[in-house]
Amino acid sequence: MTVSRAINTPQVVRPKTVEKVMAAVRATGYIPNALAGGLASKRSKLIAVVVPQINNSMFVDTIQSISDELARRGYHMLLCVAGYTHESEAEIVTTILSRRPDGIVLTGIHHSPELRKTVLNASIPVVEIWDLTPTPLDMLVGFSHAKVGYAIGQYLLNKGYRRFGLIWTEDRRAAQRKNGVCELLAQHGVDTPTEVLVPLPASLKLGREACASLLESDAVPDVLVCSSDTLAQGAIVEAMHRGMRVPEDIAVMGFGDLDFAAFHEPAITTVGIDRWGVGKRATDMLLEKLAGGFVSDPIVDVGFVLIERHSA
Amino acid sequence: MTVSRAINTPQVVRPKTVEKVMAAVRATGYIPNALAGGLASKRSKLIAVVVPQINNSMFVDTIQSISDELARRGYHMLLCVAGYTHESEAEIVTTILSRRPDGIVLTGIHHSPELRKTVLNASIPVVEIWDLTPTPLDMLVGFSHAKVGYAIGQYLLNKGYRRFGLIWTEDRRAAQRKNGVCELLAQHGVDTPTEVLVPLPASLKLGREACASLLESDAVPDVLVCSSDTLAQGAIVEAMHRGMRVPEDIAVMGFGDLDFAAFHEPAITTVGIDRWGVGKRATDMLLEKLAGGFVSDPIVDVGFVLIERHSA
DNA sequence: TTGTAGGCGTTATCAA
DNA sequence: TTGATAACGCCTACAA
Question: Domain HTH lacI-type spans what residues (chains A, B) (predicted)?
């Protein structure tokens, strides 16, 4: 017990004793067994993070910020890549719960009933990220994808664009943004956009191909709205390759404000999200709750910023 | 014990008993406690993966493939972002070892003496990835960065380029590639390249800025060799923005064969690495060894491919 | 400030 | 095929 205290709460142990313990630790290369510690204390100091993909520039920054923040506070991250299907998410979460994480971060707010039940049954703090709802499982850090869609639609209408083309991936959150755009256009009596759906993960290649197919269609759009900056970049490359000027001949709008967006030629008009902030706040809320503290506002809307640059 | 067997080795339990156990599991929502299991069995089914960064397109694919492969086999991944310094790596590995992972994947082959000692002392299988050495800690999956450098230098010399400009990040493995390029140029009596060092992480912005500074220098290069495709893309954007043609006025070479490289305009000449393969093989070797199997070749050179496209 | 006893939820081992 | 017992290494609770 004295060794345990010397390592975990040295302030309650006589300094000389601490020194003796630490000397022994160094001499033997002793490393505490966190499995045993977690079993005994019922605190594993593990946080599970479930994302649909990691080779997705949006999530990676959030993951990195969670990981950094956790490490600073003596926690570790169990990272699980769940894919975009409900079934796999429920299964993965069940196996991850066997590790007895002290808390869990889930991407999105749409979960299968089994998953909801399983997670709630675990009685640990949960933070859902990257979406917004008044009824989260527990806590939430995100933003409204529908509002992003409205904002994009409004901005482009104000700019005078009327023939919309959409290049979009098929995941649920992207769909909400698309609905936002379409609803706004409908409200203003603008023609329903032409639409090209692309599979995940998005890539420059898919953006080019989708752009090509829209440019070769009967009704060529005057603006291409893309579900990510990566697709937007592809669309721009394709349009320019065909001798079109962006935005004069065709405008392109992205989403995400990825690193390259500001420095591309033309710079990409897009929507910025505080990706690190999402991770930081999610971690803060989780650890605050674990520390027994009171989380004053369990629902955090980090909002978004429409960033006007040159492509639209 | 019967429950434990019904769950882990149902084949040694009477089918009817298994059924009864499973019914109870379902009814109660029982989820085994892997902390207790790991403590008792001395197998945590956890693999630690230490990388310098995750918001780095090179590592992300490897991480994803490790994660996928581990999940398929009932293991989980503890992902640790160590940064690029020795001190932080040693510290992080020590704390991660307290989780008693069954194996560990380390990025790179240059570790501090403390780290080597700590890891070896843990007596678990180790796989180093993304570099090559005849003397790994244990097992290794990677390729020779020096050879990549030679190949790049040789290719560009054959193409007739003589005035080299380098845009390079400061990490150790990138430095090996740079040394390869420089050595080869020196052997052929070509002028020492002009060099712009950029901080990590690489970005399109940094590529543009570095390119700008090289183009404004006294000795304008006829080829820009970049330590990553991201920097190469930036260099191309900047050069074209200044009205230069790529590769006619200035050629640009990248590294990594990231998704966008093939579909950029001009398509980026680069060096491809099987990033998924590295993760897959590392995981296979680790689990093979954990299963008590014999790893016939503990050093795997995955090689690389110089991909000629249009930018150089 | 340090020490003792007991238990956390599994699995290894041996017995039935 | 199932069960009983004793760890695994730590922490909680309480005692000294």
Answer: 1-41
